[in-house]
C-alpha cells in the first residue's frame, strides 16, 4: 500500500480480454512480418499497455490518477540490441533474465498522474 499525501492508495488495471485479443492479433501479425524479430520488443509494449490502463484508487474507491508509461523503443534501442545479442549467444538462457529487466525498464519510464 502506497501513500499519496496522507491517503492510502492502490492500483487497478482496466486491461480487459478485448484489449488482450487486439494486442495478440497485432503482435502475431508483426511477428510474421518481421520473421520473429518483433518478439524481442513485445514484452516492453505488453507491459506498457497494461500500465497505461491502470488507475490509482484512493481508500474510498475513487479514481485519483492513472499510470502513464512513456516507454518508447527509440530511447531503449541499445538495451534491446544488447539483450537480443545476449539471448542469441546464450541460446535463450538470457531470456529468463531479460523478462525481469524489461519490467524494470518499463516501470522506470512510468509516472503517476494525479487528477
Secondary structure elements and pairings:
Blueprint: E1 2-4, E2 7-13, H1 17-33, H2 42-52, E3 54-58, E4 63-69, H3 73-89, H4 94-108, E5 110-114
Antiparallel strand pairs: 1-2, 2-3, 3-4, 4-5
Mean pLDDT, nearest integer? 91
In total, the number of domains comes to 1
**Helical stretch tally:** 4
The helix content is 40-55%
Give Rg in angstroms. Answer: 17 Å
Number of strands: 5
Order of helices and strands: EEHHEEHHE
Poorly predicted sequence stretches spanning 5 or more consecutive residues: none
Give the spatial strand order of the biggest sheet: 1-2-3-4-5
Structural class, judged by helices and strands? alpha+beta
Gap from first CA to last CA: 19 Å
Description:
It is a single chain. This protein has 115 residues and is of the alpha+beta class. The protein has one domain (2-114). The protein is 52% helix and 23% strand. It is built from 4 helices and 5 strands, in the order E-E-H-H-E-E-H-H-E. The protein has a 5-stranded antiparallel beta sheet with strand order 1-2-3-4-5. A hairpin with a 4-residue loop joins strand 3 (54-58) and strand 4. Helix 2 (42-52) packs parallel to helix 4 and helix 3 runs antiparallel to helix 4 (94-108). The protein is elongated.
